[in-house]
Design a protein that fits this description.
Layout (H helix, E strand, L loop, with lengths): L1 E5 L7 H11 L6 E6 L4 H12 L2 E7 L5 E6 L2
Parallel strand pairs: 1-2
Antiparallel strand pairs: 2-4, 3-4
Length: about 70
């Protein structure tokens, strides 16, 4: 299953907190796609994944200031 989170306009630590909440409800293999424009998210989200064992799949810079992060639940 794929879940989408809109974290645009939210600053640290809110994007990671929203991501954690969704991942806690996921089963292994589910994907969470999160849109964030917080400049610190590029560091925070991969670091969160490394600490928790979730798989950081990719980060795609969009045409605006947002980045789409894809994370796969462990």
């Amino acid at each position: 299953m794929i879940y989408e989170i809109d974290a645009l306009g939210l600053l640290c630590p809110l994007p990671v907190l929203k991501l954690r909440k969704h991942l806690n409800a996921c089963v292994s293999g589910d994907e969470v796609h999160i849109l964030a424009d917080d400049p610190v998210a590029v560091i925070d989200i991969p670091h969160f994944c490394k600490q928790t064992g979730h798989i950081f799949v990719s980060a795609e810079k969009l045409t605006n200031d947002a980045t789409k992060y894809i994370i796969r639940a462990k």
